[in-house]
Amino acid sequence: MKTVLTRGLWSLMVLATFATPAVTQTTQDNTTFGGMSGEFLLLGAGAHGAALGGAYAALANDVSALYYNPGSVALLSRPGAMVSTYTYVADTRYTWAGVAFPMSGGARAVGVSVGTFGVSDQPVYTFENPDGTGETYSVAETFVAGTYSQNFSDRFSAGFSAKVISDKLGRTSASGLAVDFGTNFHATVGARPIRGAFVIQNLGTNLKHTGSGLDQGIIRQPPTGTVNVPQEPQPASLKASSWSIPVLFRVAVALDAFSMGSNRVTLLAEFTQPNNNKPGAGGGLEYSLSNIGNSGFSLAARGSYTIQPANQLDPGTAAGFTSKYTASSFTSYGAAVGGGISYTRGKFGLGFDYAYRNLGPLGGTDYFSFSLGW
C-alpha cells in the first residue's frame, strides 16, 4: 500500500513540475489585435442581422443569409434581393447587396453578394506638411461572393460561399480569395421550432499590397573614407508584408419561445471566436407580428447584446497611460436595437429594416436595409 501511495505522490509531483510551464504558457495573451488585413469582411449585412448582434446566423430567414450563413440560403421560400448601407467610423461607408434564387422546388439555392467599404478624396498630411500636402487618397475595399446552398434533408441544410477580395489603400492594392462554410439544423422542441447554426467565415489567402505607393527614391551612402559625391535618388520599391484576413468561427441557436396566431417571439444566442480578437458571446430577441388583419403588412421589433471581453482593455495601457475609455464587458457598448416593416401580397414582397448599434467610444451607427421578394 505504501509503495502505491509513494508512486502516486511521485507521479503527482512530476506532473505538477511539467504542467507548470504549460499553465504559464496558456495564460499569455497572444490575441492579434489589429493584426489582420481586410477587416471590413466582418462588418455584417443587413439591418436585420445588425439588430440581433450576429446571432442571426441561426434564424437567417432573408437574403442576408448569404453573409451570415450560406447553409440557410436553401431555406428561402422565394427569390429575393437586398441592399443595406450605413455610415461607419470617420465618415467611412459600408454597403452590402445580395440576390438569391431558390431552385429545384426549394431543394437548393444560389446567390451572389457584394460588400464594399471605404472613403474617398481624403487629404494627405505628413510630418513636413501638417496642414496637408495638397494630395488626396482613397480607400476602397470590396468582396464579391457566389453562394451555393442545399437542403440535404427536411432538417439539415449546408452551403458555401466563394469570395474574391480586393483591398485598395491609397496607391497600393492587394487581392485574395476566401470561402465561407455554413450549416443549419432545424427541428422542434415540443411544438416550438429550433434552429442551430455552425459557420466558419473567411478561410482564405493572405493579402499582400503592391503599387506605386511603395516606390521610394534612395540615395546610397558612399563607402567610408570616400568622397561624398552629390547624386540623384535611385528608384526603389518597398516590400510589404502579407497579412492574414479575419477568420470567424460562429455557433448560434434560435428558438421560437412563443408562437400564437400571427405573433412570434424568438430567442437567439451565439458564440464567436475570431482570430483577431477575444472570444465573444451574445443574445437577442425578436418579436414579429405577421400579416396584420390580413392586410399583408408585418412588423418586427428586435434587440440584442453582445459580450465583448476585449472591451475590458484600456486602449491607452500599451502606450503607458490610462484613458477615459477604460471599460468592462458589461457596458452599453455591444447593445443593438431595431425593427422592420414589410408588405407581402402573393409572391411579391417589400421590406424595410432599421438597426442602431452602440460602438462605444466610436459612437453609434444607423443601419438601413431595403428588400424585395418575388
Could you walk me through the main structural features you see in this protein, from its secondary elements to its overall organization?
With 374 residues, this protein is mostly beta strands. It is 9% helix and 50% strand. The chain contains three helices and 18 strands. The strands form three sheets. A 14-stranded antiparallel barrel has the order 1-2-3-4-5-6-7-12-13-14-15-16-17-18. Strands 8-11 form a two-stranded antiparallel ribbon. The chain has a two-stranded antiparallel sheet with strand order 9-10. 31% of the residues are buried.
Task: Looking at this protein, list some descriptive labels.
14-stranded antiparallel beta barrel, 50% strand, 374 residues, 3 helices, two-stranded antiparallel sheet
Summed up:
Helices cover about 10% and strands about 50% of the residues.
Number of strands: 18
Order of strands, main sheet, comes to 1-2-3-4-5-6-7-12-13-14-15-16-17-18
Q: Sheet bearing the most strands, described?
A: 14 strands, antiparallel, barrel
Query: What fraction strand?
Result: over 45%
Radius of gyration: 26 Å
Order of helices and strands: HHHEEEEEEEEEEEEEEEEEE
Oligomeric grouping of the chains: single chain
Helix content: under 10%
> If helices are DSSP runs of H or I spanning 4 or more residues, what is the number of helices?
3
What structural category characterises the helix and strand content?
mainly beta
Overall geometry comes to elongated
Average predicted confidence as pLDDT: 85
Uncertain runs are 1-27
